[in-house]
Amino acid sequence: ADVTERVHQAIVEIIVEGGCEACTVSAVAKRAGVERSTLYRRYPDRWAAIIETWMTRVAADVMPDIGDSFADDLRSILRRLVIVLESPLGPALLNVAAELRARRGTFPEGFFDRRMTQIAPMFESAIGRRELPADVDREGLFSFAAGPLYFRMFIACREVVHAFIDMIVD
What we know:
By secondary structure, the protein is an all-alpha fold. The protein has helices spanning about 1-20, 25-30, 35-40, 45-60, 70-85, 90-105, 110-130, 140-155, 160-170.
């Protein structure tokens, strides 16, 4: 477990500092303080290690407590997303996503599904309060809410302020 955590931490740090190209098996081994053979025993290539790292990070991300309304819950989750995207980790994650899309045609299977599972309580509570219909398109709704954040930050290169999030939610 200690070696795995050191490897994952090394991968995150290297990608944040130098992008996917800098994340070589040799660089990860050196940063994590392990032999290259240790990495090759665990992973067939660097992409398998990178994917495992991001999937583990997503699984460990704890969603905020569910509030009194869907609007408040969605605002809270979108604000958390902005904090991550504004951190050095945000562009690094997009870098990994772009590289994987270019190389494999898709992001790791289950990545978005895990995120949707994590925010499922928000939808369940809203359905229970009759704020949303039981057959709501959860993925579609969340995509429509989160998509503008990515566009504003990475395409338009504009700051995302609370008023922008409020406008999305409203």
